[in-house]
């Protein structure tokens, strides 16, 4: 399992082209991309930091790129693949939040602080994702928020 994360990261950080040298696109590409992103996030040691990296590094690079551009860190992140990334980031954020254990009175203060830090990161990522809806003005992303149900 430890080999999956670097392999998935390598796939996300390279351009996917077809036999004619054109960028891959379409439903099949989106399905495969979703699978690789999900593996990259779920199998990483800290899913929240992985989600945060994509949300704070990859997506801003896409925003700075031209209309047909892509993220420098994640070349698979384009304007057409953005909804796929968004959907996976949102659903995996929800799954990561569900794994944060509740605080009990008997817990040590250090564990309280660790959990508070996890919640802080989660809320920051959620804030970024919600603000991205305004930037990209995508109904699909809004639908993701409603379907996932935060």
UniProtKB/TrEMBL annotation:
Family listed: Belongs to the Fanconi anemia protein FANCD2 family.
Listed GO MF terms: DNA polymerase binding
Ranges in a coiled coil: none
A single BP term in Gene Ontology: homologous chromosome pairing at meiosis
Main location: nucleus
PANTHER family: FANCONI ANEMIA GROUP D2 PROTEIN
Gene Ontology CC annotation, any one: condensed chromosome
Keywords from the named record: Isopeptide bond, Nucleus, Ubl conjugation
Pfam families tied to this protein: FancD2
Subcellular localization: Nucleus
This protein's name: Uncharacterized protein
């Amino acid at each position: 399992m430890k080999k999956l994360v670097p392999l998935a990261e390598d796939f996300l950080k390279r351009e996917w082209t077809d036999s004619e040298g054109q960028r891959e696109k379409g439903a099949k590409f989106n399905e495969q991309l979703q699978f690789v992103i999900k593996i990259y996030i779920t199998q990483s040691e800290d899913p929240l930091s992985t989600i945060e990296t994509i949300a704070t590094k990859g997506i801003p690079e896409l925003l700075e790129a031209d209309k047909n551009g892509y993220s420098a860190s994640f070349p698979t992140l384009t304007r057409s693949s953005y909804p796929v990334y968004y959907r996976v980031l949102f659903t995996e954020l929800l799954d990561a939040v569900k794994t944060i254990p509740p605080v009990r009175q008997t817990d040590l203060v250090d564990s309280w602080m660790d959990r508070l830090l996890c919640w802080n990161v989660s809320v920051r990522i959620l804030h970024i994702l919600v603000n991205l809806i305004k930037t990209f003005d995508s109904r699909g992303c809004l639908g993701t928020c409603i379907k996932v149900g935060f």
